[in-house]
Amino acid sequence: MRAASTEARERLKAAMLRLAAGERAALEDVYRATSAKLFGICYRILGDEKEAEDALQDVYLTLWRRADRFDPARASPISWLATFARNRAIDRLRSGKARRSAVPESEAAPIADASPLAEAMLIDAEREARIHGCLDTLDETPRDAIRTAFFEGRTYAELAESMSVPLGTMKSWIRRGLTRLKACMEAGE
To answer: Locate the RNA polymerase sigma factor 70 region 4 type domain: which residues (predicted)?
Structure first.
């Protein structure tokens, strides 16, 4: 997991550096990797979805103009962008642009962001894709049994009955399938 986290962080850092060099496509990569987290920060401070969307737009406009100021030696990309988001949201509060539903500025500072980091979301998406990819390498019977047991919550007994096989056979299929699945997952790390 640490390697995947490092990889996600490096991809985001590379996109930020490409953006600083003027590559327009890099902004889309940065947006995809960070928009959910940054929107959450803006929303927690402003308390209004439309206000948060406006603040988020300001964040990416500012980023487009100031990407060359990003210094990977001083901050991680997500920390730097989270600071942008927090500052843009507070600026909206101070300027009076925010609607009345926004929280007072004094309450905006200590709000902790409990949403998963963009890096964690990337890691989870990669892990999910790897699990499904590894499942697809299994033979049809154990693959279907594992998917049904673990994704639909069916018991081994229910699976054995629905497939008209002895319970021991079902357990063996799933155990061998899980062993191969584990080997595939470990090979991909």
So the answer is: 130-181
Provide the CATH number for the domain around residue 36: 1.10.1740.10
| pTM of structure | 0.51
Give the Cα separation of 76 and 14 in Å (integer): 11
Task: Report whether 59 contacts 88 (CB < 8 A).
Answer: yes
Looking at per-residue confidence, does 153 or 59 come out higher?
59
Statement: residue 189 has pLDDT above 70? no
Q: What is the DSSP string of 130-155?
A: HHHHHHTTS-HHHHHHHHHHHHS---
Q: Which domain holds residue 168?
A: 136-187
Other CB atoms within 10 A of residue 92 CB:
22
Who contacts 91 (Cβ-Cβ below 8 Å, separation ≥6)?
58
How many structural domains comprise the chain?
A: 2
What pLDDT was estimated at residue 1?
Answer: 47
What length does the chain have?
189
